[in-house]
Write a structure and sequence with these properties.
The complex is a heterodimer of chains A (110) and B (142).
Chain A lengths: L2 H7 L3 E4 L11 E3 L3 H7 L5 E4 L5 H9 L3 E4 L7 H10 L3 E3 L4 H10 L3
Helix pairs in contact in A: 2-3, 3-4
Chain B lengths: L4 E7 L9 H13 L3 H20 L4 E7 L3 E8 L7 H5 L8 H5 L7 H7 L3 E7 L3 E9 L3
Antiparallel strand pairs in B: 1-2, 2-3, 3-5, 4-5
Classes of the chains: A alpha/beta (110), B alpha+beta (142).
The complex binds adenosine-5'-triphosphate and magnesium ion (MG).
The site of magnesium ion has 4 residues of chain B, from α2.
């Protein structure tokens, strides 16, 4: 499964990284506490959160998440988007809830 | 690689916009040097947590990194308030983070436990009113 396919299926908006979204994704972590995410998100995971600040990008980049999905209609800060572009982190968002996203990802075999 | 590579970084007080930068730089360097993903992940996580703690709880400080072929040493020295009870601070879930940084997603009380978990040796020395020094060793196993 690629990040592009996920974005399409979940009706997500690209805030950053659309040009690198042919990347593969597998596995998923949901959570908003950064140091928990830090140890639970592993390489190629989808990370679903409602955090919108730039520390999300720092964590996603360090653990090599496939992408970050900002759920529940939360909008990433301008600085977060900038940093995501800088660090090649794919940042997505949409109205979808974390639960709905997880169900859809599971159906997709993630 | 018999040589040692030494890196030093300044971490600024309260500067969230740059937090994670030093960990990111070290990660890049280790990747270029060909260290394994497992070692790189351990260093990145342990270092980021230390870096963030310096920004949130202390008044910034310096991070020294020494890269050897068989281990990586990280020394994080801050000029913060010190830690009154190290044992308590090490407990998963213990945090004195205020509501402002909690809103940003910090304050799970998992930073020090993560540093312990992702390093092979961890040593904290601290003095109230003076600062804290955290030394981490990550071994490179074949
Ligand atoms: N460098 C430091 N200087 C002073 N106090 C510190 C320092 N590092 C940690 N502490 C104290 O130890 C506590 C636990 O630290 P830890 O990193 O485990 O959790 P946290 O930073 O509060 O939350 P999290 O790391 O999960 O975002 C902190 O809340 C703080 O009181
Ligand atoms: Mg911490």
């Amino acid at each position: 499964m690629t990040v592009n396919e996920i974005a399409k299926k979940l009706n997500l908006t690209f805030y950053a990284g659309e040009e690198i979204a042919e990347k593969l994704a597998k596995g998923c972590y949901i959570g908003d506490l950064l140091s928990l995410a830090m140890s639970k998100v592993t390489a190629e995971n989808v990370w679903i959160t409602i955090q919108t600040n730039m520390n999300v990008v720092a964590v996603a980049s360090l653990v090599e998440a496939a992408c970050v999905i900002v759920a529940d209609g939360c909008i990433p800060d301008e600085k977060t988007i900038e940093k995501a572009k800088e660090q090649d982190v794919i940042l997505l968002g949409g109205e979808i809830s974390a639960f709905e996203a997880a169900v859809a990802l599971s159906e997709m075999g993630i | 690689m018999a040589d040692v590579m030494k890196l030093q970084f300044e971490v600024n007080d309260g500067d969230f916009t740059r937090a994670g930068e030093t960990s990111s730089k070290v990660k890049k360097t280790l990747t270029q040097l060909g260290f394994s993903p497992i070692v790189i992940r351990k260093v990145a996580i342990a270092m980021y947590e230390g870096e963030i703690n310096m920004v949130i709880h202390a008044n910034g400080g310096t991070i020294d990194v020494e890269i050897y072929s068989e281990k990586i040493l990280i020394v994080m020295q801050d000029k913060g308030p010190g830690i009154a009870d190290i044992e308590k601070a090490m407990q998963a879930g213990f945090s004195t983070a205020d509501s402002k940084v909690r809103e940003l997603g910090f304050g799970a009380g998992m930073g020090l436990p993560n540093m312990k978990k992702y390093s092979d040796e961890m040593e904290i020395t601290t003095e109230i009113g003076k600062g804290t020094c955290v030394k981490l060793t990550i071994n490179v196993k074949e």
